[in-house]
Amino acid sequence: MPQTKSETVPVRSTSEVVMVRHMVRRWAVEIGFSIVEQTKIVTAASELARNMVDYGGGGVVVLEALDDGIRRGLRLTFEDKGPGIADVEQALRDGYTSGGGMGLGLGGARRLSNEFEIRSKPGEGTRVMIARWKGAS
Amino acid sequence: MERIPILKMGRYLLVSIQVDMDDRTALALQDDLTAQIVKHRAKGVLVDISSLDVVDSFIGRMLANTAAMARVLDAETVVVGMQPSVAITLVELGLSLKGVRSALNIERGMELLQSVARDTEAETADAADEE
Predict the structure, then answer these.
(1) Coil vs helix vs strand at A108
(2) Chain A residues interacting with chain B (CB cutoff of 8 angstroms)
(3) Chain B contact residues (CB < 8 Å to A)
(4) Position B88 in a domain
(5) Domain coverage including residue B15
(6) Of B21, B35, B91, B108, whose CB has the highest number of CB atoms within 10 Å?
(7) How many Cβ atoms sit within 10 Å of the Cβ of residue B16?
């Protein structure tokens, strides 16, 4: 997938979660996402960035603007070296939480994205990739 | 840390969230609001979120918790001005904000608060009459 732009930013605190929201918004606007598309990917990014801070001990997010000649999109990869998730299926279920949250973060982020991929190994960390395409529902 | 100002108008508290809040700021607002409800014996809280272009599960939970705590303290909460894209996203996220009253704008929100406050006052008066 040809990538037109890429950037990696650290996320270690709740104020950096806000920075991620602003950055993702800027990129989504640049790609030409509609206001609803922007809001969906910014909200998904906020959930996943917060998960890294709350459960993964912080991590990094990689932003990538994509253009395959036909469609334009935004891919975000969240990577932490935290304790990992023992049961990914369970973590994706709405209402499941190991902390004090509502348990909507992972499942919600998946619903708000066109593509979703998660890899996690207990003791090694978690990597979540989401993507949205301009004009996709 | 930033703090969101809370204005008092008669028996009501007004909050207009103009910044993208981090989680700690959101929790501080929740605490401040419950404290102010008690301090001013407020009957209603109006929260204007028309400037917010993102409401994620954390902010959503803060709004729902605030409404629940206010109710226990005998005050009603109305959230006004939610942007359509935020509403669409919240529903897809899985957050229905059950128990949170909402209105399109501040004017309608104030009307709603006043009518709810009148109803509860009438009930209280009726109960007193019966005694």
Answers:
(1) helix
(2) 13-15, 17-18, 21-22, 25, 35-36, 38-40, 42-43, 46-47, 50, 94, 101-102, 104-105, 107-108, 111-112
(3) 20-24, 53-58, 60-61, 83-86, 88-89, 92-95
(4) yes
(5) 6-130
(6) B21
(7) 17
Please report residues of B whose CB lies closer than 8 A to that of A104: 57, 93-95
Facing B85 at nearest CB: one of A21, A35, A107: A35
Picking from B83, B63, B73, the residue whose alpha carbon sits closest to that of residue B37 is B73
Q: B85 vs A22: CB contact, 8 Å cut-off?
A: no
Run of H or E residues at A124: none
pLDDT tens for chain A, 137 residues long, are 688 899 999 999 999 999 999 999 999 999 999 999 999 999 999 999 999 999 999 999 999 999 989 999 999 999 999 999 888 888 888 776 765 565 668 999 999 999 999 999 999 999 999 999 999 87
Task: State the nearest Cα–Cα gap between A69 and chain B, in angstroms.
Answer: 28
pLDDT, tens digit, for every residue of B31-77? Answer: 999 999 999 999 999 999 999 999 999 999 999 999 999 999 999 99
Q: Cβ contact (<8 Å) for B53 and A25? A: yes
Calpha distance A28→A39 (Å, rounded):
9
Domain count along chain B: 1
Hey, what are B76's tokens? 């009603």
Collapsed DSSP state (helix, strand, coil) of residue B115:
helix
Pairing of strands B101-103, B44-48: unpaired
Q: Count Cβ–Cβ pairs < 8 Å, chain A vs chain B.
A: 73
Contact B94 A43 (CB under 8 A): no
**With contacts defined as CB-CB under 8 Å, which chain B residues touch A17?**
22-23
